[in-house]
Design brief:
Blueprint: H1 19-37, E1 46-51, E2 56-62, E3 68-75, E4 97-108, E5 111-116, H2 123-126, E6 137-139, E7 148-149, H3 152-167, E8 174-178, H4 198-214, E9 220-222, E10 228-230
Parallel strand pairs: 1-8, 6-7
Antiparallel strand pairs: 1-2, 2-3, 4-5, 4-8, 5-6, 9-10
Helix pairs in contact: 1-3
């Protein structure tokens, strides 16, 4: 199993305070001011871009124009594994591809957490059918066995943004997980070590470039080998 967030076993986690209410109390005023300054509405749709090699995360919000703008960056303090896809339970790999936040867990073992829809349709092509793994989260606590861990403070304000978007009936937050920041990385992803992933990475690079240039979420399809293909060429 990947880093278990215990999202289905939270009744045993003692609750000293309402963590979400505390996070709103701490961050909401400043977040609202920053959101307004970026010409976004409170509760704007969220996109999260993760760069595994650089251990960085970029948070984007959708502006009133419909385009996404950079809101802030977060250091990933723990992320196990190496560049490359998650294949099976216990491999401690952070997955790669295009996801969304399917679960907001206010009672996480790791403070607060955002659960991803892994395995998605692309993952299902290549994962171990018997033990694909699961319970992949962005969470606090700075410890990981397949998840992206950030500080408790960072997950608090990120959780507030995602929760506000949910309350505003926006779509679940988009999450793009990449092996590296393509074109600006010390990782030579065309080395023999990563040969198996070159076609897959080329596909997700196209999606990432679309997002960075067009500032809209890319439309992707999945081929028979589980690779992503960009299908949107218009706004």
């Amino acid at each position: 199993m990947s880093q278990s967030d215990s999202s289905n076993r939270t009744s045993s986690v003692p609750q000293i305070e309402n963590r979400v209410a505390a996070a709103y109390s701490k961050f909401e005023e400043n977040l609202r001011n920053k959101v307004q300054a970026l010409e976004c509405d409170w509760g704007a749709e969220v996109t999260i871009v993760v760069y595994k090699h650089e251990k960085r995360m970029e948070i984007f919000l959708q502006q009133r124009s419909g385009k996404f703008c950079l809101f802030d960056t977060i250091d990933i303090c723990a992320a196990s594994g190496s560049p490359g896809r998650k294949i099976r339970q216990g491999d401690k790999q952070v997955p790669e591809g295009f996801y969304h936040v399917g679960v907001l867990n206010p009672k996480s073992t790791y403070h607060l957490s955002l659960g991803l829809n892994f395995p998605n349709n692309a993952d299902q092509v290549i994962v171990d059918p018997h033990e694909p793994g699961g319970e992949i989260y962005i969470h606090g606590g700075c410890t990981s066995s397949g998840c992206c861990a950030i500080t408790d403070e960072a997950i608090e304000w990120l959780y507030v943004l995602c929760d506000a978007a949910k309350k505003a009936s926006k779509p679940p937050a988009n999450v793009m997980i990449l092996p590296c920041r393509f074109g600006e990385t010390t990782l030579s992803w065309q080395d023999m070590e990563f040969e198996n992933w070159s076609t897959f990475w080329a596909g997700i690079q196209e999606g990432w470039l679309w997002f960075m240039n067009q500032k809209t979420w890319p439309k992707m399809e999945v081929d028979s080998k589980g690779n992503y293909l960009l299908i949107s060429e218009v706004n």
